[in-house]
Specification:
By secondary structure, the chain is α/β, with parallel strands linked by helices. The chain is about 55% helix and about 15% strand. Helix 1 (about 10-20) links the parallel strand 1 and strand 2 (about 25-35). Keywords: DNA-binding, Phosphoprotein.
């Protein structure tokens, strides 16, 4: 029996998926969670074989939840998403995610993916994989990406400077360079763009 934890902030999707997977002879849904933090806590408590994590959840997202789970227990992690952006795939694979599936797939396909990763294999949806291979690389330097990461939740220039051990002027210069390269007006827009493309 493959023990599965499901995390999705949309109640209807989570409960429907749990019910459909529960019909499979070899799958047992051991927990349903509405956010990333509770998914990590329940995974550490229950030690499921596979964690099925929605990418976009309040608090920490599915990729971050997977990274935290994988650091502590040997559970396999599959990320499901409505918006399968190629850059996010690279971020997920870098975090040790074992499967990446769009929400448009039928429940039977999701069950098959769970079996694949439980058996030690990796699964990436073919369309997402093809898009990832053709997706553009970040034009930003590593330090510019550090600045975006440090300010991703709206931190001030002073906060970013303190966390990266830089002067406020240096951070402003990096922000100016980022906005120029991306053709955007605000740091918030740059952080959203970088996150959507999987650069941060």
């Amino acid at each position: 029996m493959i023990r599965v934890l499901i995390a999705d902030d949309e109640d209807m999707i989570r409960t429907a998926l749990a019910a459909l997977l529960g019909l499979e002879d070899d799958l047992e849904v051991v927990a349903e969670c509405a956010d990333g933090e509770s998914a990590v806590a329940r995974a550490l408590e229950l030690r499921p074989d596979v964690c099925l994590l929605d990418l976009e959840m309040p608090g920490i997202d599915g990729v971050e939840a997977a990274a935290r789970i994988r650091q502590r227990i040997p559970a396999r992690c599959v990320v499901v998403t409505r918006h399968a952006r190629p850059g996010v795939l690279r971020r997920a694979l870098g975090a040790g995610v074992d499967g990446f599936v769009p929400k448009s797939r039928p429940a039977g396909d999701v069950a098959a993916v769970i079996r694949e990763v439980a058996a030690g294999r990796r699964y990436v949806d073919p369309e997402i994989a093809a898009d990832a291979l053709s997706d553009e690389r970040s034009p930003l330097t590593d330090r510019e990406l550090d600045v975006l990461r440090a300010g991703a939740r709206g931190e001030t220039i002073a906060d970013i400077a303190a966390s990266l051990h830089l002067s406020a002027g240096t951070v402003r210069n990096h922000v100016s360079s980022i906005l120029g390269k991306l053709g955007l007006a605000t740091r918030q827009q740059a952080a959203i763009t970088a996150r959507e493309r999987g650069w941060i």
